[in-house]
UniProtKB/TrEMBL annotation:
GO terms for molecular function: acetyl-CoA carboxylase activity; ATP binding; carboxyl- or carbamoyltransferase activity; zinc ion binding. Binds 1 zinc ion per subunit. This is Acetyl-coenzyme A carboxylase carboxyl transferase subunit beta. A zinc finger (C4-type) spans 25-47. The gene is accD. Residues 21-283 form the CoA carboxyltransferase N-terminal domain. Signal peptide: none annotated. Its EC number is 2.1.3.15. Component of the acetyl coenzyme A carboxylase (ACC) complex. Biotin carboxylase (BC) catalyzes the carboxylation of biotin on its carrier protein (BCCP) and then the CO(2) group is transferred by the transcarboxylase to acetyl-CoA to form malonyl-CoA. Zn(2+) binds at residues 25, 28, 44, 47.
Amino acid sequence: MTDEEPNSNDRPAKRGVPEGLWLKCPECQATVFRKQVDRLLGICPECDHHFKVGARARLEQLLDVGSFEEWMTEMHSVDPLGFVDSRPYKDRLKSEQKKTGMVDACIAGRGYLRGRPVVIAVTDPDFIMGSMGSVVGEKLTRATEKATELRLPLIIVSGSGGGARMHEGILSLMQMAKVSAALGKYNEEGGFFISVLTNPTMGGVAASFASLGDIVVAEEKAMIGFAGPRVIVATVKAPLPEGFQTSEFLMEHGFVDRIIHRKDLRSELAAFIDYFEIAPAKV
């Protein structure tokens, strides 16, 4: 090596692109900057596609800063059936908890939405597809009962591609009736329930509490339904209508009351609450 030749050890190491810096939009296939998507509340800057949003991010988008009081933080699922598919259910729960930082697929509590006190629950599409097991059902039921007691508006934001959680069998299926019964009592006491449907809202969630709102709103192009389209096609042996099971299709057929862009959701929900003039109890 001559004096003019650089020492390879002195060359700066090449810096790779940090993982997760970019996202590929499933709608327009554009590669977009994650931070820009986050600033836009999880919306593609190129085509307006609404990315899936986790439960905690959803609460930050909707509620006043620092106003959320989480309830039932220690409630966690067990494995009553000793269920095993590709791996044991108890192991799947541990990995999902590590991946999402959540105990289960639902967060519930009390907060303020533009100064208005509300009880709110959100399901997370990343925790076993946001499926409803016994913990999710119990949290939703208790949140509804607390909203009844406090005479507060109730908001449930659904993001469940898994419906009822098969890993818990009938203990999961019974949550559909349990949450619905609590909502029935809430309605008898004059409560005001807003159901927000996001992509996806499927299975037992769509077939129970998610469709029982006094007002049912949905985000744009959300997939909403009971069985998936492939299952339906295989069953009825006929092609499905264009746009079937999207929020726009359901709006056209009377299942959804309104489709709201995510950037407008917070203000629209506040306007609904003002319109119905729900007076909170003194606590």
